[in-house]
Amino acid sequence: MADPKDYWTQKRPDGLWETKREGASRASSVSTTQAEAWERSKDLARSKGGEAYLKGKDGKIRERNTYGPDKFPPRG
To answer: How do residues 42-57 score in pLDDT, each as one tens digit?
Structure first.
């Protein structure tokens, strides 16, 4: 299920890096470097209380940051 508070950083076919809200059809922002796009994703996720995901060039999730309340807190 798509959560509009979550943001993804991923490489585009044209070689640029995009920040994209989960479920959106267009990118929120486009950057020339992965670092710039990742910072933007974290800033947006932090402001919405969501999660930021960083996809590597291979398409696998490399890093993930959660902001706001934890959706699955540990028991105990």
So the answer is: 999 999 999 999 998 8
